[in-house]
Write a structure and sequence with these properties.
about 350 residues, alpha/beta, Rossmann fold, six-stranded parallel β-sheet, about 40% helix
């Protein structure tokens, strides 16, 4: 309780506060407590890849995912804040980069985690709190409600003005008038079509994973199932089948790429056997996209073992398993294809979207 009091005092004194949350909030079933705290304080909140859905993505206080493929506003707020509250997160290299650079800006860090070995592992923290995140947040909310102190409204207003300037850069923008299907547009259309459904999204690993994280707005925890830092290609379809078995009335989509999906594509047989009507959104750019992207950035476009010339006809392959296959290669056909696929409630539908080969994820 004493450490929580210290943490709360630091937060209430902050001029540029930031709340950074990871998979621990989801695993600890602490989403409701996090929402209560963030809204009571009026502070910006960011989620890691594994924390998405822990705080609702459509809430104005959410500044997007942070890290290597996060939003400009989330990363700038993380790097320039004066008080940072980290909850169930681990300060990994994809989030903060080099710890030496991270510490160029003076800030106070509060770290809440159930695992003491995760605290001060990569960055030194000022207020460590070891405990179940839900219980810690409950106590923090209780103390905040019971006390009379409130954040500095003038400073917080100025901080939000700065964040809104960063938001104005529209860092996730892409060419919406392209004659070639943009992968971002597919995920954005998927979100618009399914946002009011009882929806679960799984993914494999690569560019498609990051586009799904960036453009699908998760408002609830445990709706985004992916392997995170394990980088496990091939898990998307098995994940989707497991989710569909656990939630037979729900809608389940697997966002994948043509390289990842082939690693466990034989599970289309399992889907047929158990009548699991998942929807597969294959962002097919004929490359191992993330590998190609890094070869472009760091190896002078010397592409090696990242291109995919020997691909199957995914429509015929899907049909051979007794499912429905669709190939989509025009931007104007993206939304109609998604609508048709999701209208087929009892069928597994494999949508093979032929996307821009040159698109990179940032």
């Amino acid at each position: 309780t004493g450490q929580i009091r210290k943490a709360l005092n630091l937060l209430l004194e902050a001029k540029r506060p930031m709340i950074y949350t990871g998979g621990g909030v989801v695993l600890g079933n602490a989403s409701a407590e996090l929402i209560q705290l963030v809204r009571a304080l009026g502070f910006p909140c960011t989620n890691t890849l594994m924390g998405l859905g822990g705080y609702p993505a459509t809430d104005p206080q959410f500044v997007g995912m942070l890290g290597m493929h996060g939003t400009y506003e989330a990363n700038m707020a993380m790097q320039t804040c004066d008080v940072l509250l980290a909850i169930g997160a681990r300060f990994d290299d994809r989030v903060i980069g080099n710890p030496k650079h991270f510490f160029q800006e003076q800030r106070k860090i509060i770290h809440v985690d159930i695992d003491p070995s995760s605290i001060s592992k990569r960055v030194r923290v000022d207020v460590p709190i070891v405990g179940d995140v839900r219980e810690v947040l409950q106590e923090m909310n209780r103390q905040l409600v019971a006390g009379k102190e409130r954040p500095d409204s003038v400073a917080i207003k100025a901080w939000w003005k700065q964040i809104d300037e960063w938001r104005g850069r529209d860092c996730l923008k892409y060419d919406r008038a392209s004659k070639i299907i943009k992968p971002q547009a597919v995920v954005a259309a998927l979100y618009e079509l399914t946002k009011d459904m009882d929806m679960y999204v799984t993914s494999d690993v690569g560019q498609h994973q990051m586009w799904a994280a960036q453009f699908y707005k998760f408002n609830k925890p445990r709706r985004w199932i992916n392997s995170g830092g394990l980088g496990t290609m091939g898990v998307g379809l098995p994940y989707a089948l497991g989710v569909q078995l656990a939630h037979p009335e729900a809608t389940v989509a697997c966002v994948t790429g043509e390289a990842s999906i082939q690693m466990c594509i034989q599970e289309l047989s399992t889907a047929k056997q158990y009548r699991l009507p998942v929807k597969i959104v294959n962002l097919n750019n004929r490359y191992m996209g993330m590998v190609r992207q890094w070869q472009e950035f760091f190896h002078g476009n010397r592409y090696a073992e990242s291109y995919m010339d020997a691909l199957p006809d995914f429509v015929k392959l899907t049909e051979s398993y007794g499912h429905v296959g669709m190939r989509i290669d025009k931007p104007e056909d993206v939304e109609p294809a998604l609508k048709e696929a999701f209208s087929r409630k009892n069928d597994l539908v494999f949508m093979d979207f032929i996307t821009d080969q040159t698109e990179n994820v940032f």
